[in-house]
Design brief:
The protein has 143 residues and is of the alpha/beta class. The chain has helices at 17-26, 44-56, 78-97, 117-142; strands at 6-8, 31-35, 61-65, 103-104. InterPro entries: Xyl_isomerase-like_sf, Xyl_isomerase-like_TIM-brl.
Amino acid sequence: MSREIFYSGLVQLEKPVKTNLQAFADYGADGVELFLDGPQWNDKEARFSNVKTYLNSYPFTYSVHGPMFDLNLTSENAAVRQTALNELKKTIEIAAEIQAHHVIIDPGICMFQIFDKHQAQRRALEAIMDLQQHAKIQAAYCY
């Protein structure tokens, strides 16, 4: 059985993507998980266009991890939920453009006992179904 070694950008979140890719190549990575979170991904479209050519210069298989810090698909606040959904849709679009193997989504957490955990689960499921539909559209568009 063949095994591939993947490296996650989370471990070097504070460093530029280009620096991380070279380090991962130097360590013999077969694949890389792009972690699209932190200040360097605040403007995903601009940042991605700057590194897309660079990504294609490596023989890696890519996966993409959506942003998870300060985002929550289960939030009691509708604006927070919508922002999280929009950011994860951008993540899916980037993943489709580089033909990433998969996308990792953290749906969020129900942080306080005063909130209904079942409602949070319903919100997460609804958002994930929306994201799955968005992913299908992106896959059809990009492949």
